[in-house]
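Input (structure):
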């Protein structure tokens, strides 16, 4: 859709199951050459054996052999007048006078296919290996899962020709492109396993900053029910509006530019203002770029790479010890943050680029929100989300700058600030909006706020830094 901008990306995890399906199908098969033309001739008009021999130029022995074979097969018989005629069985080979005769053949086949548990669309032969993480689960009716084999039996028959057309069935079923087989019966359907199917959704706004209706899912034969379930889940997770609190943080850190991106009522994004800012910033002396959407989205992450790439190259050439430089990523307390496989990819990238075989280039640490050092449940959730690779992921008592602010800080070099703004009357999910800056005064001032909080306390003997997520989990076992 033209003139739209993505303001959030969320993966939804739809329950699906994989099945072993044994079925019988009917296909039509052509007849051997002589057999076909003898039957076609007699289909036109009953004939004597001598007339058949004359027509084909057969000898008496040849025509006798051909006719005897057709009689034995039950395809020819003698009429009361002594002429050869078709039997009721061989008459069924023809749909019209002059048509090529074909006979139906019943065959068996087996296939492994996956179906979603919402509308039972066939998802193909792929054996999905997705895990229930980095996304929001879509709830479906319990009956769909418990009676899935019955549903799939019906849907396999209904969707058979589409499944065949998409190439999900054996090549033997599609060898003859002129012939389309049909399901005769489904002999058995056996559930093999359950898994999620990942449905990435892009939330968009138009040029006036209004939310745009979500697009349908190409994988599904119908998207309405799934969209209804998604809307219910979004309503359940939505938080009260927080623009007032975030506006105070913007003022506190001197970020007037981002504040201007909201309309006068603070109820939606002023896209015209954003577009104007996007045109001005590249020509400004300020080393700053504004963005809308998660920082880990493909487009916004390029802003991070633009700053990080030259630093890595310079540090690789530099002989000095630079491994102590911190790269801190403080996550917000937002229910829609990180619900995308993109986040896992970005964090892995940061860890991989942090060192070479010869040296360490910087020290990355991810801080994820917990209620305290004894918050086992949340820590266990984070551990499942980020396994493997939790050795650099720590728990941080939620509440940094109100809890809805995300910061990526490369010490002394650049900083990313993301405000996760909840505007429930205008958008179904929070709107991440922020900036990346290499201005030293901004990096220093925001860096001080981050370090003061990370190194601070939230009460007597209650440090904000709760330690490694893995240790929080082990400490409660």
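Output (sequence):
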């Amino acid at each position: 859709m033209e003139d739209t901008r993505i303001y959030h990306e969320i993966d939804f995890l739809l329950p699906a199951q994989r099945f072993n399906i044994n079925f019988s199908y009917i296909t039509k098969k052509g007849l051997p050459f002589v057999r076909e033309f003898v039957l076609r001739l007699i289909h036109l008009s009953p004939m004597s054996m001598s007339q058949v021999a004359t027509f084909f130029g057969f000898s008496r022995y040849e025509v006798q052999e051909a006719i005897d074979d057709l009689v034995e097969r039950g395809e020819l018989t003698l009429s009361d007048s002594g002429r050869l005629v078709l039997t009721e069985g061989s008459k069924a080979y023809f749909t019209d006078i002059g048509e090529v005769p074909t006979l139906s053949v019943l065959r068996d086949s087996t296939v492994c296919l996956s179906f979603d548990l919402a509308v039972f669309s066939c998802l193909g032969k792929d054996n999905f290996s997705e895990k229930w993480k980095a996304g929001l689960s879509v709830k479906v009716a319990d009956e769909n899962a418990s009676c899935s084999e019955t549903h799939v039996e019906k849907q396999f028959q209904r969707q058979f020709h589409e499944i065949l057309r998409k190439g999900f069935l054996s090549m033997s079923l599609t060898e003859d492109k002129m012939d389309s087989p049909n399901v005769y019966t489904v002999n058995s359907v056996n559930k093999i396993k359950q898994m999620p199917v990942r449905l990435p959704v892009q939330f968009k706004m138009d040029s006036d900053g209004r939310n745009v209706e979500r697009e349908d899912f190409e994988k599904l034969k119908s998207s309405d029910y799934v969209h209804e379930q998604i809307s219910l889940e979004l309503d359940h997770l939505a938080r009260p509006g927080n623009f007032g609190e975030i506006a105070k943080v913007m003022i506190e850190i001197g970020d007037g530019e981002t504040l201007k991106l909201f309309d006068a009522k603070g109820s939606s994004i002023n896209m015209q203002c954003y577009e104007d800012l996007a045109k001005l910033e590249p020509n400004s002396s300020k080393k700053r770029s504004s963005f809308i959407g998660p920082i880990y989205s493909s487009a916004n992450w390029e802003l991070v790479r633009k700053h990080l790439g030259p630093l890595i190259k310079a540090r690789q050439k530099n002989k000095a010890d630079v491994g102590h430089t911190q790269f801190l990523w403080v996550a917000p307390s937002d229910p829609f943050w990180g619900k995308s496989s993109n986040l896992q990819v970005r964090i892995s990238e940061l860890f991989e680029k942090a060192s070479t075989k010869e040296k360490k280039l910087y020290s990355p640490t991810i801080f994820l929100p917990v209620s305290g050092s004894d918050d086992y449940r949340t820590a266990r959730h984070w551990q499942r989300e980020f396994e493997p690779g939790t050795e650099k992921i720590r728990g941080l008592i939620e509440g940094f700058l109100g809890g809805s602010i995300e910061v990526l800080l490369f010490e002394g070099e650049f900083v990313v600030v993301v405000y996760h703004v909840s505007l429930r009357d205008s958008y179904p999910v929070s709107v991440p909006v922020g900036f990346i800056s290499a201005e030293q005064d901004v990096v220093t001032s925001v860096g001080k706020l981050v370090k003061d909080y990370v190194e601070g306390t939230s009460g007597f003997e209650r440090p904000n830094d709760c330690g490694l997520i893995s240790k929080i989990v082990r400490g409660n076992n």
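Notes: The CA atoms of residues 217 and 223 lie 6 Å apart. The chain has 16 helices and 15 strands.
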